[in-house]
Amino acid sequence: MGKKKNKKQLQKELEKLEKKQLAKKKNKKAKKAAKRQELTREKLIELSGGDLPYQPASKKVFGKKNYKRMKVLLAARVGKKRYKHSVGVAKTAKKLAKLYGYNPKVARMAGILHDWDKGLGVYEIRERAQTLGVDLDPQISENMPWLLHGPTAAAALRLEYPEFGEEVFQAIARHTSGAAEMSPLDCIIYVADIIEPNRTFGDMKGIKRLRKEVGKVPLEQLYFDAFKYTFTFLVNRDRQLYPETVDIWNSLMWKYGFVRTMKF
């Protein structure tokens, strides 16, 4: 009996050891795959020599090569966390585009560029808005300068990279505030900015609910629920609202609010 017990124990120990080794191999493979999929910010900057002069994009404006090039330029402009967030938005936007019948490559490019000016400080962003002639409510510039990075990025990219087109610039401009009338790309970038996998700031329960809605509700409804999430989050925390937020909310309520509302 004692020998049989020893054999069983030995077999169990061997099985445990095999499971541990298998888990380690899987973990190593996952880490290697992650490294292959995404170059680190430091490597991107190193590859670019710290900067890349502007050159008009090739015929494949939204192709993989040009996308990688814009990632390099972005990496030199923003911090590590912001870069990681932007890559997350780009990937999420691509997935949303595939689900909702939009061009995934265009969505990916808009996603990677949406926080192009996010690395600028308060005084820098105000000065940039004035230089670019961004027409915004003075209240935003004075009290909510963090909302300027969308419109300034759109204005700057329009001048520097006109080949990306007005639809991309509009989506970038609107991702901070939303609008009553949103194009499919506007909706995709607005939603992707909130639900991308690296997002840890905000009401995570609400974000998880939005993630679960993807593919189950129409894109316009998904945008409405995302806007409602943002609106509710800000009000519940006594935060300032974009001056036109209430008007946008009322317009969206007439369109989608009475069809189905979502609790956060």
Automatic annotation (TrEMBL):
GO terms for molecular function: bis(5'-nucleosyl)-tetraphosphatase (symmetrical) activity; metal ion binding; nucleotide binding. It holds the Pfam family HD. Its EC number is 3.6.1.41. Residues 10-21 have a biased composition (Basic and acidic residues). Residues 1-38 are annotated as: Disordered. Coiled coil: none annotated. It comes from the Bacteria. InterPro entries: Diverse_Catalytic_Enzymes (IPR051094), HD/PDEase_dom (IPR003607), HD_domain (IPR006674), HDIG_dom (IPR006675), YqeK (IPR005249). Keywords: Hydrolase, Iron, Metal-binding, Nucleotide-binding. Residues 78-207 form the HD/PDEase domain. Residues 22-34 have a biased composition (Basic residues). It catalyses: P(1),P(4)-bis(5'-adenosyl) tetraphosphate + H2O = 2 ADP + 2 H(+). It is an enzyme of class 3 (hydrolase). This is bis(5'-nucleosyl)-tetraphosphatase (symmetrical). It comes from Denitrobacterium detoxificans.
